[in-house]
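Ticket opened by: R.M.
Priority: normal
Category: complex prediction / small molecule

The reporter submitted a protein together with zinc ion and asked that the result be attached to this ticket for the collaborator who will pick it up next week. Submitted input follows.
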Amino acid sequence: MAWCTRYRARRINLNRCFASLTPKWNDGSGVGLESFEDSRITLAPSKERKAVHLPEEIGSPRITHKSTRFTGNDVAKAKADGGSDMFDEIRQRFLEFKSNKFLKEVAHFQNLARAQSPKFMVIACVDSRVCPTNVLGLQPGEAFMVRNVANLVPAIEFGPSETGAALEFAVKALEVESILVIGHSRCAGIEALMGMQDSNPRNHVERWVVNGRAAKLRTEVTAPHLSFDQQCTHCEKESVTQSLNNLLTYPWIKDRVEEGLLSISGGYYDFVDCTFEKWNLDIEGSGPNGGKRYSTKDHQFWC
Ligand SMILES: [Zn+2]
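Result attached by the on-call engineer:
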């Protein structure tokens, strides 16, 4: 299934076969949450990493001002070497990046080679249409990023996850100042979540998107009059706020938020009319777990 590239017309057919889910589907993971949380994890390298072997300064075989413009001869050579047209274009874009960006800002990129110190941690969907680097103009070194189906942050009770690992590194080692969770329009992951109707997830996607179950339930309770498509849109935003609340289930995030060292924000990119919404979780008015109450504040609408 081509996730996040679906058409609304086939939404119900794809997802109506799923029923409601129990929150304990992953209890058999064999991972003891308590022991996992108690363990001290040394995150290396830190943003202060010193043992980095850089290429020589300008003139190194790896950093050169040699013209990198892509030519017709390059295309012919790539084809002769077995390259495909698809990768020819990607190669051209890379060489243009090297010529127009890397080599023009080589000092900056050499600093980045020594260490990264991003201010943002971004969590976004895997959808090919919503790349935050493009949509928000994020530059190399600005944002630590993880992308998953439906841009979900699981509560800590879920256990180890790729998203949890990225959060841990970003918050503990890189000490990012802001976490931004970005949802988007016409999300197939949220569509799958809203369409689930049984208690036995039958594939990886179902087992993952069930992390947004509280947002689905809130949507069904607060917007029962809406059509399925409209409920999906509602849940696309609701799940972002739930993810913000789930962030607070990680004690090393909650502590930094309460100390004023870390902010957490939600975003929503609508690629139909190209607008962006941003809001913050109202920490004072929110409960500690994803299924409990939470409220938002500071809404902005960029258009
Ligand atoms: Zn999506």
